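Open question from group meeting: does this chain pack into something compact, or does most of it stay loose? Before anyone orders reagents, we agreed to write out a predicted structure and look at it together. Recording both the input and the output here so the notebook holds the full record.
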Amino acid sequence: MDRVAQQQWLLGEDQQRRLDLSQFYTPAHVAERMWEWSRRPGLPHERVCEPSAGRGSLVLPMYGRSAPKDIVAYDVDPLNVRRLELIALPLRPPSSSEPTLEVRARDFTEDLDPGRFDLFLMNPPYEDDQDIDHLDHAMDHAPSVIALVRSVLVHGQGRWNKFWRHADIRRRANLVERPQFSVPTDGRVPTGAKSDFVVLDIERRHRARRQGEASTQTEEWWSWS
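Structure tokens returned:
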């Protein structure tokens, strides 16, 4: 199999495998909007990390105008790691203006010292509170985290005690339409997610939030229909 054929095979969807591994990739239009949203005035993004990169949906929009200098992508699935490595090659001409991509084949939350970043851009896994674990670890290594998460993440006493006492939401974007990242196995069009999703701009608090303490955030609604 030549390299072109190999790349086409790696970029193809093995739907049953994605179901077995609970892999739900960020739709391209959501990923592009998240990258644009992350580039707010005064926020540097020279070194960006995607800690659960999958097939690279959130990595690809970073190439082009206002690209970061360095991108680090994590994934535990060897097939996704190989996809990311192959995807990066044709997008990395000899020009120094294009970002470099480092792919790390391991669990982001188990990397005790991933380094310092300007920004995390992420769609974390959410089973067994993995989303909280990813967000919490990311906030230790960057001043800003932009994340696509289920809206239920911001509710509940357990989440308050485990996460929101130590984090602030600066901006919140509500997705009017649920993302279509389900994986049908019968050839039908993908259906929307079972939960409502939001995109959050999060930072670490300097002190723990007191019960009943108010916070200020800007809120907007995203729709593509």
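Observations to bring back to the group:
The longest strand covers residues 167-175.
The mean pLDDT is 81.
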